[in-house]
Fold this sequence. Notes:
Elements: H1 2-28, H2 31-43, H3 47-60, H4 65-81, H5 85-98, H6 111-117, E1 120-139, E2 156-157, E3 160-172, E4 177-195, E5 200-220, E6 226-251, E7 258-265, E8 274-286, E9 290-301, E10 312-316, E11 319-323, E12 330-349
Antiparallel strand pairs: 1-3, 1-12, 2-4, 3-4, 4-5, 5-6, 6-7, 6-8, 8-9, 9-12, 10-11
Amino acid sequence: xxxxxxxxxxxxxxxxxxxxxxxxxxxxxxxxxxxxxxxxxxxxxxxxxxxxxxxxxxxxxxxxxxxxxxxxxxxxxxxxxxxxxxxxxxxxxxxxxxxxxxxxxxxxxxxxxxxxxxxxxxxxxxxxxxxxxxxxxxxxxxxxxxxxxxxxxxxxxxxxxxxxxxxxxxxxxxxxxxxxxxxxxxxxxxxxxxxxxxxxxxxxxxxxxxxxxxxxxxxxxxxxxxxxxxxxxxxxxxxxxxxxxxxxxxxxxxxxxxxxxxxxxxxxxxxxxxxxxxxxxxxxxxxxxxxxxxxxxxxxxxxxxxxxxxxxxxxxxxxxxxxxxxxxxxxxxxxxxxxxxxxxxxxxxxx
Length: 351
């Protein structure tokens, strides 16, 4: 009987000790009133005390998204009141990161937060997207026959059709400037016609597929959702080969018989990995999370596109021609469209 009495006595003391501990902790910090208390201290001008309580509440309390936004707003307001602008911008940035669509309410929000809001700019840290474009491409080409048989003035070229698509990444350096990186897949097809004007005419087709790495700096005037932007940078073409097809009209001068020959010919893949420069303009339509744009750019190779070895050899009867490119420089005008997804919003002072 005595043993049972001692057991229950210890159980009661343990329960009382637990209650006292819980009550003491609750008295020291109450998550249910921390947000309200922090707001009252802000109104009373006790900014440091308000900051202390709210920072502790972020560590110890499980706030909803709305409540957390209120905490960041009050923290930003307190920091602004004590002239800690850098920390105020940080907390405001956390608010907009948590809710990029947050709209300022000048009647309900603290006056210090309204004042802070007028001194900051909100922009994303990164953007990821997709781009597609069509291009009008021009080559400077020289065709030389074997044994130096002249082609007279009959040689000429026609410009190409081209397209590219790929992935884009933007690093937002500040409110107006971004550093852009693109990885694009390109395809260029062109038709070229040459001959001697009397006996032989060759119509030559080629398609070349390659990847392009593009890096450029972009700046824009971001006052409205529709943003004009300019950019300039470098690109690097990484060749991956292609195919060719040639149609030959051969006229035998002895019997004046027309012979039409169509064949596939192997290409010596003499195109090089080359770099170039580009300049462009873009018109962007921006929303909170997404952006759309149309752009145009001019690109030009910095050096010869191909090696000087033979490109294609055509063997027909007594004629033996080869197609050679020398000093080939490619330039192009591109017209593109893209979409980007913006992430990780932050803020920065306007001053």
